[in-house]
Amino acid sequence: MFDKLKSAVSKLVDAFKPKSRSEKIEEIKEDIKKDPTSFEKGTAFELCCLDIFPEKDFDLLEMTHNPDSANGRFVKSDLNPDLQFKDKKTGNNFSVECKYRSSLFKGAFSWAKNKAQADRYREYEKENEIPVFIAMGLGGTPEKPEQIFLMPLKEIKYNSLFPIVLKD
User: Of 4, 8, 56, 148, whose CB has the highest number of CB atoms within 10 Å?
Assistant: First the structure.
């Protein structure tokens, strides 16, 4: 009995240990293998988000890479937010993480799959000293969602948001 309890506690402790960068990369690779359409939907919504920040007003500095463009190798910068822009008027840089959902899950928009993912964006924001925004597309298609919400990461406390806090 004690061995079973010890084993269960050990597994629980391991589940909450911080993951190394290589473990995070492997986790993302596995997610893409499990559901390649998820990656395709994400890419389509990223392209939709480009329209929110027109070229005449914003320079596109960075964008998530296509896995095929690196001969199957994972690009580490893909752990960063999907898009980085420079506002041509102010000269300020900012990043945008794009999340599309066809519907709410248990009445909420789940923008991060876990605390570690959310913390990775917060860490990026702090280390790079630039704001990160979360663009959330809901309903419709990734190319043309029914609603798009844009929130500063610093205002988001939870991995899932109820519609009452989301604003067009």
Answer: 148
